[in-house]
Design goal:
TCS_response_regulator, CheY-like_superfamily, alpha/beta, Response regulator receiver domain-containing protein, 5 helices, Sig_transdc_resp-reg_receiver, 135 residues
Length: 135
């Protein structure tokens, strides 16, 4: 079974660890790459080169606070560089639907649950849907 490559752009180290653990827990094997800022994500893309975008990035999760890198829209930049469609999910701290307009171009918006068990279950559902059904 091929490993799926997931990029997580998250400034909360606790959330990043939970996400990584959930993606690595049984099921589809995943290589989870962590970036703690939008700039770090942009640097990751530069380091990986075009090969990353041609066929090996399967999913991106971005904290809503990190969708802008200065004047650069991280989501638009990923979509522009990607040779294939890369699903992008924005993780929010709020259930307020009006926040979704701040990150146009994302494929999905999910509110982070406050309870750890609910958070891990949400990430498992993301993994199952986006990496097993869609990809």
């Amino acid at each position: 079974m091929n490993h799926k490559n997931v990029l997580v752009v998250e400034n909360s180290i606790l959330d990043a660890i939970l996400i990584k653990e959930a993606f690595n827990h049984k099921g589809i094997p995943c290589n989870v790459h962590l970036a703690q800022s939008g700039k770090e994500a942009m640097d990751f893309f530069k380091e990986q080169g075009l090969t990353l975008f041609s066929n090996s990035l399967d999913l991106v999760l971005i904290n809503e606070e990190l969708t802008q890198v200065g004047e650069v829209d991280l989501i638009a930049s990923i979509k522009e560089k990607a040779a294939t469609m890369v699903p992008i999910i924005v993780l929010t701290d709020t259930k307020d639907q009006s926040q979704q307009s701040q990150a146009p171009g994302a494929n999905s918006y999910l509110a982070k649950p406050l309870e750890v068990t609910d958070f891990v279950n949400m990430i498992n559902k993301v993994k199952n849907y986006w990496l097993e059904v869609v990809c």
